[in-house]
Design brief:
By secondary structure, the protein is an alpha+beta fold. The chain is built from five helices and six strands. The longest helix has 30 residues.
Length: about 190
């Protein structure tokens, strides 16, 4: 589980990454058409990357493994795999993401905010649903209601890496078994 400080640091990074400095100042204005075309290509790629990221959330909600698989590279790595381990390989990641649909009814991902900078997409998302069994680490019938920040690297149009950061307070609420702080060393 990631520390709250990590979550806040990533949240701050999302804010900074979403600042778009595409308008040149008067002192740095460049009328070179190749520079403008390069900037247009970058903005277009970033918009495409945002659209792909949003598509994955919708595909997870519905269990659409074909869409998920089409967006993930064969050699992708998910750094938020089961039990906090790295999950390697597009087929393995696709199976995990599509299978989430089978263990959480009424699963919904609501994008609060997202931004793209270069090859990276940063997304703050609210996750909601009800578990149907204990596969997700929560008892059957537990309500999922939390916020996460996802960072995805996209290369050549495919997702190649993912890092996810959950709010520890949300995780504790969903587990329904709060920590007994009385046993912690002081």
């Amino acid at each position: 589980m990631k520390m709250l400080v990590s979550t806040l640091a990533i949240g701050t990074a999302v804010v900074f990454a979403s600042c778009n400095n595409s308008a040149p100042s008067a002192s740095t204005s460049n009328t070179d058409s190749s520079s403008t075309m390069s900037q247009d290509t970058t903005n277009n790629t970033e918009e495409q990357n945002l659209a792909k990221s949003r598509s994955v959330y919708k595909a997870i909600e519905s269990g659409d493994s074909a869409t998920i698989r089409s967006l993930i590279a064969d050699d992708a790595v998910d750094h938020q795999g089961p039990n906090g381990t790295d999950l390697k390989g597009g087929a393995n990641i696709t199976h995990m993401l599509a299978d989430m649909h089978n263990h959480v009814k009424d699963m919904r991902f609501d994008v609060v905010s997202d931004a793209a900078r270069g090859d990276y997409v940063f997304t703050m998302v609210d996750i909601k649903g009800t578990t149907t069994d204990n596969t997700m680490g929560m008892p059957s019938g537990a309500k999922m209601d939390g916020r996460s920040v996802d960072v995805v690297k996209i290369k050549d149009g495919k997702m190649v890496e993912h890092w996810g950061f959950l709010d520890p307070a949300d995780v504790m609420k969903m587990q329904q078994h709060p920590m007994d702080n009385s046993k912690m060393k002081k």
